[in-house]
Amino acid sequence: LNGTTATSQNPQVRLTSPVLYTVRLTATNAFGVDSITKTAFIQVNAYQTPGAGAVFSSIADATMGISRVRCAGLDSSFSNPTSPTYQYINTTTQVGTVFRGGKYSIVLNRPSSGTALDYKVWIDLNLNSNFETNELVLNKIANGDAQITDTFTISSTQAYGNTRMRVGLDLANSTQFNSVYSVVGMFKDFNIAINRDLVKPVVQLNGAPIVRTEINKTFNDPWVLALDNIEGNISSRVQKVSNLDTSNIGVYTIKYFVLDYSGNVSDTLYRTVIVELNSTGPILVLTPPTIYNLEVGTEFVEPGYSALDNTGNDITQNVIKVSNLNKDRVGDYTILYSITDAFNFNRTATRIIKVRDTTKPVITRKFAGLVYKHQVGSQFVATNIVSATDNYDKTLSLNFATGVNQNVLGTYFVVYNVTDSSGNVADQLTVQVEVSDYIKPTITLNGSSITEVEVLTSFTIPGVTVKDNFCATNTLVVVRTPSILRNDTLGTFSVKFVVTDCVGNKDSVERLIKVVKKSKPVITLLGANPMNLNRFCNFDEPGFNVVDNYYSNLKAQVTTDLSALVNDLPGVYPITYVVTDPSGNRSETVTRTINVLEKVCNTGLYENQFENYFTMYPSPSKGVLNIDLKNEVEVNNIEVYNVTGQLVASFNNQLQTKNTFDLSSQSNGLYFVRINTAKGTFSKSFVIAK
Questions:
Q1: % helix / strand / coil in the chain, to the nearest 5?
Q2: Which of 387, 410, 466, 571 is the most buried (most CB within 10 A)?
């Protein structure tokens, strides 16, 4: 097979019958012929042909089946993906070749994605003509993908030889699907050659072939890189042979080689290691970053550095720094670090400082709120309402787009942009501009701000004068609050005038309306005036009327002065009447003239005999009146009258020796007590003054 013959060094032979084979090897040279025979040396097993419970092609739809199989160089396509139930592709061109340690992919294709199926692939790796559970290399359950893939790796101890791979499918989630049976499915077998790799791995040194190290220091081997054509990177399996002794100065050799899983040995590599007193000099290490980004204007904070001599002593304090850094100017700068050890070995390191402006400029409004209110008719300058500032650039050029018409009322938008010298772009700012009339109209009162009117009389409120800088006078609207004014209530009331111009600007002014009462009430006497009164007769008030333009019930507030009346002495006496309303207006005093006549009043009054029978006290009284009985007399009742002759209290109790009467509910004034007895009526006046 594969171009080999019976005389080839490594002949390939196909054994087609499941029997024991005897093998004879014959060698011939110029000196003769020799041979060796191995009887029953090769046992050839036969694979069981798988079967199915039903013909797959009879139930399969257009998406089902196996249309292509690829694995380890094998690539077979099938025009009929659902038939036959079993097929063995036994050709020399459709053979997959694998090697120990190799990783391989299996790719199965079906006509298209669709109905889910179970797919399984086995490889007879133990070469016993059976497909066992541990030889399952692909197992996809209920899969409807158009392409099914998986990977497997050949063991490092895998036996060499020819074997088979079996691909099978069954209905989704089949519980009876195995390497020799599917309920409703199909199988395909392929030849797999497990060959010995004949290519040796390649080893190459990491780093230089000659390296130096210091005495009594750990040598860090740079190692090697080992690559195999099948197994990939096998550097971890490299073997090393070395006579290195770092405790003694000298020249030493390290040998490196590696074997792959097929037994191929790489070429041996050599590295020379020179152990010396000091070969490295000091170590200077910069703490990252070595490229330092610094925002312009901010302080540089040293990340740090360290220096050690060849024996590990810290000599950081001897490091010298030289820098041209200017934190306030954008640019690239360097800090050079330098250290020299006791052997005059020098190391340097450089840190690059990139001073950059990464802060974007800021556009801010110069006015409060979000909307700029522009007075119509005045000049609009877009750069006057915003400002642009930057942390680095002192001056910035604002870019803006505007369609503001300063002479036409309306809503406009101005879009502002700015970019600083470092290319930082500010956040775009859009400003809404409202062109309108923002000046209030003026309103002034005609006349005084306080208008005084008499209650319940008609009056007219003086008006106002209005004007505006933008709107025509005839467009100005004046509203008075309240619209209807009352004149029937005393007090000070506010009348507000509000003027609104054609764009809604308002102004207001207030006028105070004082509704007052200045007219006097008028008292009119009833009955005779002058009036005759018999001596000792009580004065009975004929009555009077009070007329007022605002207050009612002033009659009770009238003050009647009887103090000048003497009813037991003939003569002419005045009784005066006067009233003051709650607003303080005092009426004219009205006088009733009383003529006390010589004729005695026939009333049965025994005033001069009152003290013979009674003692009354105190007078003035605070509302409690005491009457003591001096001589026995039968009392019928006791009556109390005010100065107008009105009965205000009556007591029907028989008098005791000492008696107290409560008159605290009566008002201050002059009162008369009448005691009606079996001997006649006795009277006496007293005053209540609380």
A1: 5, 50, 45
A2: 466
382: helix, coil or strand?
Answer: helix
Quote the CA–CA distance of 230 and 158 in Å, as a whole number. 14
User: Structure tokens of 35?
Assistant: 């041979």
pLDDT in tens, 109-168: 999 999 999 999 999 999 999 999 999 999 999 999 999 999 999 999 999 999 999 999
The residue type found at 227 is L
DSSP-based three-state secondary structure for 316: helix
In whole angstroms, give the CA distance from residue 620 to residue 642. 14
Whole-angstrom Cα distance, residue 536 to residue 567? 5
**389: confidence class by pLDDT, cuts 50, 70, 90:** very high
Is the pLDDT confidence value at 10 over 60? Answer: yes
Average pLDDT over residues 647-655: 82
Bridge partners for 305 per DSSP: 286
Nearest to 521 by CA among 491, 559, 551: 551
Query: What order of strands is seen across the sheet that includes strand 331-340?
Result: 291-295, 346-356, 331-340, 320-323
51: closest CA among 172, 141, 178? 178
Comparing 214 with 421, which gets the higher pLDDT?
421
Q: Helix, strand or coil for residue 312?
A: coil
Q: What residue type is 1 in one-letter code?
A: L
DSSP letter at 265 equals: B
**Spatial contact of 466 and 473, defined as CB atoms under 8 Å apart:** yes
How many Cβ atoms sit within 10 Å of the Cβ of residue 169?
31
Torsional class of 570: left (φ above 0), alpha (ψ -120 to 50), beta (otherwise): beta
3-state helix/strand/coil string of 219-262? CCCCCEEEEECCCEECHHHCEEEECCCCCCCEEEEEEEECECCC
In sequence order, the 6+-apart residues with CB closer than 8 A to the CB of 92 are 1, 2
Check if the beta carbon of residue 127 is closer than 8 Å to that of residue 161: yes
Dmax over CA atoms of the chain, in Å, equals 206
The Cα 179–Cα 165 span in angstroms is: 10
Judge contact between 412 and 435, C-beta under 8 A. Answer: yes
Q: Which two tokens stand for residue 623?
A: 């509302």
Kindly tell me the sign of the dihedral angle through the C-alpha atoms of 122, 124, 130, 136: negative
Each residue of 158-201: pLDDT tens digit? 999 999 999 999 999 999 999 999 999 999 999 999 999 999 99
- Please report, for residues 174, 330, 338, 348, the alpha-carbon distance to residue 351 in angstroms, rounded to integers and kept in the order given: 67, 16, 11, 10
333 beta partners = 353
Residue 176's nearest CA partner among 46, 48, 50, 62 is 50
Secondary structure element (H or E) that encloses residue 681, with its range: strand 680-688
Q: Residue holding tokens 């040279």?
A: 29
Structural Rg of the chain based on CA atoms: 66
Of 21, 138, 161, residue with least CA distance to 71: 138
